[in-house]
Amino acid sequence: MLKKDCLFCRIINGEVPSSKVYENEYVYAFLDIFPNSDGHTLVIPKSHSDYFSDTEDLYLAEVAKASKLIANRIYDTLKPKGINYIINEKEEAFQQVFHYHMHVIPKYHRQEGYNFNINPNDDLTSLDEIKNKIAIK
């Protein structure tokens, strides 16, 4: 079930544009509009739940499978040196959109300590160019 006032539910319904890279019966994946790096993808279930901890197991499994598929595509096309898989739950953990989602974040160079920047100063490739490289049809 989707919620009318949820940004990600509205993206799934096509009411808000996105750079879709993958979709199936259970999940929708699109490029983050404030990427940490080229290829930063959000994988979301097509059923609304605010948090990882209240998401049905079927959707957790489908998000994980889609994240793996997308990561392998990113490795093949964008050639990162590694990938972070990140889930933030609740405001205290920096969740900004309250629809469970997985961040798939390619890493192109090693950073000292863990660094999760929003919109870093690095030069980023256009979302359309990246979408065309990694989209799974």
From TrEMBL:
<feature type="active site" description="Tele-AMP-histidine intermediate">
    <location>
        <position position="101"/>
    </location>
</feature>
<dbReference type="InterPro" id="IPR036265">
    <property type="entry name" value="HIT-like_sf"/>
</dbReference>
<dbReference type="Pfam" id="PF01230">
    <property type="entry name" value="HIT"/>
</dbReference>
<protein>
    <submittedName>
        <fullName>Histidine triad protein</fullName>
    </submittedName>
</protein>
<feature type="domain" description="HIT">
    <location>
        <begin position="7"/>
        <end position="116"/>
    </location>
</feature>
<dbReference type="InterPro" id="IPR011146">
    <property type="entry name" value="HIT-like"/>
</dbReference>
<dbReference type="GO" id="GO:0003824">
    <property type="term" value="F:catalytic activity"/>
</dbReference>
<dbReference type="InterPro" id="IPR039384">
    <property type="entry name" value="HINT"/>
</dbReference>
<dbReference type="GO" id="GO:0009117">
    <property type="term" value="P:nucleotide metabolic process"/>
</dbReference>
<dbReference type="InterPro" id="IPR019808">
    <property type="entry name" value="Histidine_triad_CS"/>
</dbReference>
<feature type="short sequence motif" description="Histidine triad motif">
    <location>
        <begin position="99"/>
        <end position="103"/>
    </location>
</feature>
<dbReference type="InterPro" id="IPR001310">
    <property type="entry name" value="Histidine_triad_HIT"/>
</dbReference>
